[in-house]
Write a structure and sequence with these properties.
There is one protein chain. By secondary structure, the protein is an all-alpha fold. Helices cover 52% and strands 1% of the residues. The protein has 32 helices and four strands. A hairpin with a 6-residue loop joins strand 1 and strand 2. It is globular. It starts with a helix and ends in a 9-residue tail after the last helix. It is found in: Nucleus. This is C2H2 finger domain protein (Zms1), putative. One of its GO terms (cellular component) is nucleus. Pfam families: Fungal_trans, Zn_clus.
Length: 703
């Protein structure tokens, strides 16, 4: 018995149960997470284990006379071919597969080893992975991307999961499971950080042992033992939910019940009182006020604040890096910024009650964040009355700038995780306030100046400003991409610097880094213009002297652009295309219609036939469209070159910026499909899911 216990080196970090094999531990974690990775191809019923799926197939009513597919094969899994993967179709793994034979497509399974246990050479496998994204058929890839509109497009984004939609939930649960599976991953009651394994877990197909099967039968899927050991009514929480934050060392072990009675920190009490003070200005009855007070005291304890801040940097910071992690201190940042970070992180909590209460209180946190002087009209009126411009203090004041960052983060949180009413309010009203405040602070012209060399802190603060206006413009374009909402910032307005490399920004001392550059010497507008230039940069002569001096560097701009830069550029390109279609294309259509009518009268042709045209024929000679096509082609060339120069491990660690090619495919779709103008013109502003409506463009290939 002692020997058997000693051999169980793989231990669950939630219930502390031991296992002798890592695949048994991985399978066990599914019981805690609720993930069901095995689904029936006929009725879509999902199962946590492959052997349960095998038992289901003989009794599946919708299977009919179809043969039972193979499940749980040993060794290396059989790969789907490229065509089936891009079009999200079932592939039988044959060489060639039946799906490609039926559609007369070239199947890339040809030449692959038929034995699934034979691994491909590293060079072949890496080339297949690279070609999967960039060299597959555009129609197939777009079909896959737009399969479920925005939900499928952002499936692997680390967006704050929303309670009323499925976006990202499966990915977040999967990610937490991956980080929880590590050999001998036990947590003592000290502050030693666990050795988290961040690699993707492999498929596990071994049949369970008798002990595992017996426990699964006895406990069932909804038994109390399946739930997390976190007490939702206390201040304790599971260690695996925390990321070791730079300036904090939260307890990684399961704290004792006495921690509930520990005194709260000053920032915790201050945050609760600040939000409550704003909440009392809302007309509500005493019962509602009591509920809000209880919820805030439950949610904003010191331990939970530390946890939520850690979740923010774990999930969201990697996507939009506008806060400097080493210098972020919960006791020193402004209360509005702390509130925004905390509520963003709370959206990622795997504890049901925490996430529910956070969403319940999210609107009140928004009221508090946007009540600061940066967004307050009362402050503007008072400054005007006493004759002191409000912009003078806001432009250089670090406190005001942090409150602006808080407003941006709150808009993002409400748009991706809030209710429909809150989402619309954030997009229509709150973001306008953020853009207006950014303009008052002159962030659109923010650049690194020589005086920033005096101290490293000055450079970091200026870089935070540059990054903030960059992500603000990115969100502005994203509203157009996802909801067809007009942009509020224009490309010529963005005379700010491009942000530095993320590896430099995340360091405690950027000046000491080998890759450190004091300034990129390239503005956002310069980079956008570069996409429309030819290889020799001949178009630089059409700009004024100020732009000509910048464009003199244009031959080297393309080689210095980062993944973040390219992600921003494709968003701006998409918005530019959308604006062209909604403003210029209808005017050109009217002109061509008038011209055809004149030709019809002169030639006595059939009037109905003369009015038959397509958007493609209208815009084929449009010089703006020609330049857009050239810019998209240039962006793709720069992207392929950039991707080839980034190491695989560095690429895997990036956030959703690395999906920029998907945005290029949607932009390319708009300028190549003949009904795109009609679709865009008939689409309402602030539509629920623009990508879902764009799927109609995929149906005209055979027209």
């Amino acid at each position: 018995m002692t020997k058997q216990t000693a051999d169980k080196n793989f231990r669950c970090n939630i219930c502390q149960r031991g296992f002798t094999r890592i695949d048994h531990l991985k399978r066990h974690h599914l019981r805690h997470s609720g993930v069901k990775p095995y689904s029936c191809i006929f009725c879509s019923e999902a199962f946590a284990r492959c052997d349960n799926l095998r038992d289901h197939y003989p009794d599946c009513v919708q299977r009919g006379e179809n043969p039972i597919p193979e499940t749980g094969q040993r060794g290396r899994r059989r790969h789907a071919c490229e065509s089936c993967t891009s079009m999200k179709l079932r592939c039988d793994g044959q060489s060639p597969c039946s799906s490609c034979v039926k559609r007369n497509l070239k199947c890339n399974n040809t030449g692959r080893p038929k034995n699934p246990n034979i691994e491909l050479p590293p060079s072949t496998e890496s080339s297949l992975l690279k070609n999967e994204e960039l060299e597959s058929s555009d129609r197939g890839s777009i079909n896959f991307l737009l399969n479920g509109g925005t939900d499928s497009f952002t499936e692997r984004f680390r967006l704050p999961p929303r309670s009323d939609r499925a976006r990202g939930m499966q990915y977040h649960t999967q990610k937490e499971l991956e980080e929880a599976t590590s050999p001998a991953n036990t947590y003592a009651l000290d502050t030693t950080p666990p050795n988290i394994n961040t690699g993707f877990f492999s498929e596990f197909d071994d049949l369970s042992t008798f002990e595992e099967s017996f426990m699964s039968f006895m406990t069932g899927p909804f038994a109390e033992s399946q739930k997390s050991m976190v007490d939702p009514y206390s201040g304790t929480f599971a260690a695996h939910a925390l990321l070791q934050f730079p300036n904090q060392e939260p307890q990684l072990g399961m704290a004792s019940d006495s921690s509930f009675y520990e005194p709260e920190s000053a920032f915790s009490s201050a945050l609760v009182q600040a939000i409550l003070a704003k909440t009392w200005t809302v007309n509500m009855d005493a019962k509602s006020q009591q509920e809000i007070s209880s919820n805030l005291h439950f949610l904003l304890t010191t331990r939970r604040i530390q946890k939520f801040v850690s979740l923010y940097f774990l999930y969201w910071h990697n996507n939009c890096q506008l806060l400097h992690p080493p210098s972020f201190n919960m006791e020193q940042v402004t209360m509005p910024l702390l509130a925004a970070v905390v509520f963003m992180g709370a959206m990622y909590s795997n504890e049901e009650r925490e996430a529910y209460v956070a969403r319940r209180m999210l609107d009140f946190a928004e009221l508090y964040v946007f009540s600061t002087d940066v967004f307050s009209y009362e402050h503007e009126v008072s400054c005007t009355f006493i004759g002191r411009p409000a912009t003078d203090a806001e432009r250089k004041d670090w406190v005001h700038f942090q409150n602006l960052q808080a407003g941006y983060l709150m808009v993002v949180t409400q748009y991706w995780a809030g209710s429909k009413v809150s989402r619309n309010r954030a997009m229509e009203a709150r973001f306008n306030e953020v853009v207006a405040a950014a303009r008052r602070m002159e962030l659109t012209r923010c650049k690194h100046l020589p005086e920033d060399r005096i101290h490293e802190t000055l450079w970091i603060q200026k870089e935070c400003r540059i990054r903030t206006i960059n992500v603000i413009s990115l969100l502005d374009c994203a509203f157009s991409f996802y909801s067809n909402f007009p942009c509020r910032l224009t490309p010529p307005e963005l005379e700010c610097d491009l942000p530095c490399e993320e590896s430099v920004f995340n360091c405690e001392h950027p000046f000491a880094q080998l890759k450190f550059r004091f300034t990129r010497e390239t503005t956002v507008y310069d980079a956008f213009q570069h996409l429309f230039q030819d290889e020799q940069g001949a178009s630089a002569c059409h700009h004024d002297q100020h732009h000509t001096n910048h464009c003199a560097h244009s031959p080297s701009i393309g080689t210095t652009l980062t993944v973040t830069d390219m992600f921003l550029m494709i968003h701006m390109l998409y918005s530019y295309i959308n604006s062209h279609m909604t403003v210029l294309a209808p005017i050109m259509r009217m002109r061509q219609l008038k011209k055809r009518k004149e030709q019809s009268t002169a030639n006595s042709e059939n009037h109905k036939g003369s009015l038959t045209f397509t958007c493609r024929s209208i815009t084929s000679d449009d010089p703006v469209l020609i330049s857009i096509r050239a810019a998209l082609s240039r962006w793709r060339t720069l992207w392929l070159d950039l991707k080839s120069r980034i190491p695989a491990d560095e690429w895997a660690a990036m956030g959703f910026m690395k999906t920029a090619y998907n945005f290029w495919q949607v932009a390319q779709l708009l300028i190549t499909k003949k009904h795109s103008v009609d679709v865009i013109m008939q689409m309402e502003v602030k539509c629920e899911d623009k990508l879902e409506k764009l799927k109609v463009l995929l149906q005209d290939d055979n027209d």
